[in-house]
């Protein structure tokens, strides 16, 4: 794989992060259009050259199917431009997955890409704590006001982003210590404290669920009946002291985030149920077939007045935009991720567990929030899926080389 392809995806991801997480339509059109054009005219794009992986083949079919269904929605469109934009989104995700998959084929390129994702996490977390950030990027408002959101402008998006980064720290990438200080522990505390400051209940609960599902099971399997506290060195206390200092300096922020954590989420759940009910009604009015810009009909079907540009669920959004065929494709994608989970658990490899855990966090959270409205989170999802899928692939060239070597050995009587 050429380095420029890997760097192209990472640079695009970094730019999307800085541009409000690539939430607004103009950012999708300008940034998404530029990246898709670059990828489309890249001479390195040859989808057929890596057709030996069954996951790869099916994911390509699913993404192309979603892009096709988005354009098919133009046949019964509410807003035609939304259909074209939705097609652009899926084409963009196709190229992001393709280049990430190619990186995943090579263990060194895969490790470098994970390291660059973690670097992005550090930048976003560090920037979130800078004073005056709300003067540059749009601050959160309403119920989300005065909670950590960094570049995103939406604490829940920031929360799940930090949860994904926290999962990736388990991949074992990079130098683990510096002058006795555990760098991995520093990153984990930075991301954990940042999740707490966002006040995102869903991000915290989903991360804990995935952690128990992955790490807890692995820990119990390795040391049944012998769990004990690790020895603590003086240098190990430094990350905790730094985290305590950060909390002390931003005490009022953590109080507000803590208040949101402890508040009963009845209003939030009720709002989402309204969105889902109206989304189902819109999909029914469209005969469960693709509709370009279908969610724009929500003011006509709502029984309680509200304003929302997104149904707060990737499943409902796909049902409205791509219809039942899109939901079936999404179900197929979930089966692939589920199979990767069981393979990761059986192999016990840290990198696969970290990638699959990060994928699971993002996939679960996007079912109950507007994650995929942020281009940066969508790009992150397809980068992770591409890297993880590539890790299960033996490149075709390697298979041919292995076969030729075996033939030569047999011919030579070895």
UniProtKB/TrEMBL annotation:
This is O-antigen polymerase. The keyword Transmembrane applies. Signal peptide: none annotated. InterPro entries: WaaL-like (IPR051533). Keywords: Membrane, Transmembrane, Transmembrane helix. The keyword Endoplasmic reticulum does not apply. The chain crosses the membrane at residues 7-23, 29-46, 58-78, 84-101, 113-131, 151-168, 189-214, 237-258, 318-338, 359-385. It comes from Syntrophobotulus glycolicus (strain DSM 8271 / FlGlyR).
């Amino acid at each position: 794989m050429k380095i420029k392809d890997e760097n192209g995806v990472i640079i695009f991801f970094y730019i999307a992060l800085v541009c409000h997480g690539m939430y607004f339509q103009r950012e999708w059109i300008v940034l998404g259009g530029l990246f898709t054009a670059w990828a489309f005219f890249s001479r390195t794009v040859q989808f057929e050259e890596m057709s030996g992986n069954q996951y790869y083949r099916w994911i390509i079919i699913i993404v192309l199917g979603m892009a096709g269904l988005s354009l098919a929605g133009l046949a019964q469109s509410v807003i035609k431009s939304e259909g074209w934009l939705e097609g652009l989104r899926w084409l963009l995700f196709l190229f992001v997955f393709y280049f990430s998959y190619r990186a995943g084929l090579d263990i060194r390129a895969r490790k470098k890409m994970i390291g660059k994702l973690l670097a992005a996490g550090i930048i976003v977390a560090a920037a979130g704590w800078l004073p005056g950030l709300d003067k540059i990027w749009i601050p959160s408002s309403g119920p989300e006001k005065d909670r950590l959101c960094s570049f995103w402008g939406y604490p829940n998006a920031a929360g799940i982003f930090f949860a994904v980064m926290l999962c990736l720290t388990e991949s074992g990438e990079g130098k683990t210590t510096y002058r006795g200080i555990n760098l991995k522990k520093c990153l984990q505390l930075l991301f954990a404290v940042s999740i707490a400051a966002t006040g995102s209940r869903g991000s915290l609960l989903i991360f804990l669920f995935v952690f128990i599902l992955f790490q807890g099971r692995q820990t119990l399997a390795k040391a049944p009946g012998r769990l004990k506290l690790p020895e603590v060195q003086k240098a190990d206390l430094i990350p905790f002291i730094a985290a305590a200092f950060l909390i002390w300096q931003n005490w009022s922020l953590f109080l507000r985030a803590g208040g949101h954590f402890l508040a009963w989420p009845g209003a939030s759940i009720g709002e989402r149920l309204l969105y889902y009910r109206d989304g189902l009604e819109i999909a029914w009015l469209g005969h469960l077939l693709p509709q370009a810009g279908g969610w724009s009909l929500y003011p006509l079907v709502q029984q309680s007045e509200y304003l929302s540009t997104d149904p707060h669920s990737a499943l409902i959004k796909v049902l409205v935009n791509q219809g039942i065929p899109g939901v079936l494709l999404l179900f197929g994608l979930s089966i692939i991720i589920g199979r990767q989970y069981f393979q990761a658990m059986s192999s016990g490899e840290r990198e696969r567990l970290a990638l699959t855990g990060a994928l699971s966090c993002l996939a679960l959270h996007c079912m109950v929030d507007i994650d995929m409205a942020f281009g940066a989170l969508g790009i992150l999802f397809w980068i992770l899926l591409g890297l993880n899928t590539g890790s299960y692939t033996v490149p075709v060239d390697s298979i041919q080389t292995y076969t030729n070597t075996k033939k030569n050995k047999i011919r030579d009587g070895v």
